[in-house]
Amino acid sequence: MKFPHLLLLLLFAIPAQAQDTVIRAGTIIHPQDGSVSIDQKITVTNGRITAIEDWSGSMDDSVTDLSDRFVMTGLFDAHSHMALVVDKRYDGGNYYVTGLLNPTAYRAVQGVANARNMLESGFTVIRDIGNNGNYADVAIKKGIDEGFIPGPHMETSGRIIAPFGAQFHLQPEKPGLGNPEYFFADGVVEIMKAVRENLHFGATFIKLVIDDQRYIYSVEEIRTAVREAELAGTYVSAHCWTEQGARNAIAAGVRSIEHGPNMPDEVLQMAKDAGVFLVGTEFTTAGLAWADPTADISAFEAEHLQFVDRLRRAYALDLKIVYGSDAVFFDAEKGRAYESFDVLHSWREAGVSNADQLKAMTSTAADLMGMSDERGALAVGLRADIIAMPANPLDDTNALYNIDYVMKDGTVYRHPGSH
User: Fold this and answer.
1) Sheet with 48-54, side-by-side order of all strands
2) Per the omega criterion (within 30 degrees of 0), is the bond before 180 cis?
3) Total domain count for the chain?
4) Which of 32, 74, 111, 194 is the most buried (most CB within 10 A)?
5) Do 32 and 151 fall into the same domain?
């Protein structure tokens, strides 16, 4: 043979035939409108859904049999912290101490474990919203994207930008202890620089803490961050605890309010009129009390009820509400995803329907994150992010605790009997 190298190159130049995955789905749930489709055939090719149709054909070993399962698109947690593990065995349940004790490299290792647990529990997309030391979230995302570690698709905020002090109370001898957990930036020039530096080092969106000090960001300061983010093709998410903080953030054009417990109906209506999403992180009493079980439970109950009331009012106003857990605590037995699901107890208490809970965890979250053309539904052309469970979450979202099939981008990470 005269040209063996040429023939070898031609052989490798011929594209490989795509391998289809065929799933028989007993009941497909469509969270965007609460409808269902019975006995369906889902075809996945190269990580995307290429067909959804009535079941036909024969069952054989090449078909993934989910005929007795309830099947839907993967879940989103839009307020997560993969590299923040508050562990009362070592830090007394104080995340300020966590940031001082644990270097970024170790927190990235913790984040790898959390990301895997979230994916295997059904969360195929998460928005990591800060508290990652010196860009641990970006490192975790890169490891997932490059196939080194399993985990959800991640959007990352990098370092949280905040007025001096951020969420901590510092002492004058050690004013730098808040770094690198936070990026202190005061005034439009410092904020512009902080946004650009964050984007340079891998943030895919920007998070601001608006109002955890006596002084808060002004509309002008927030608008600077919004403008810089938009010029880079992304958006600002605003941590707001006070009414004035939420008012300033909405007026400045942020994309989402995080937490927002002190939002009267007028401010919720402002958010709705401006098209702002609410990621409310509606903590349960047990979740709030986890870090300090000796504290007076009534104080935690009052805070929990405040969140539930705000969610109830936001839901009644038809504000765009998105599921976010703000889960941060360590539980070796149950894992991070179990804590994330805990927040749904508050949604049930607030009277949010099961269908709308699922919508907040899928299609509305995809809208917030600007990826509705890629994820957030089971539809032809979208990424093959598919989960399944034995019971119907439209009847009771506690069914999500028992998700036993997980596919992300066409790759199966969990199947019935694998755990």
Assistant:
1) 48-54, 35-45, 20-30, 63-73, 386-389, 405-408, 411-414
2) yes
3) 2
4) 111
5) no
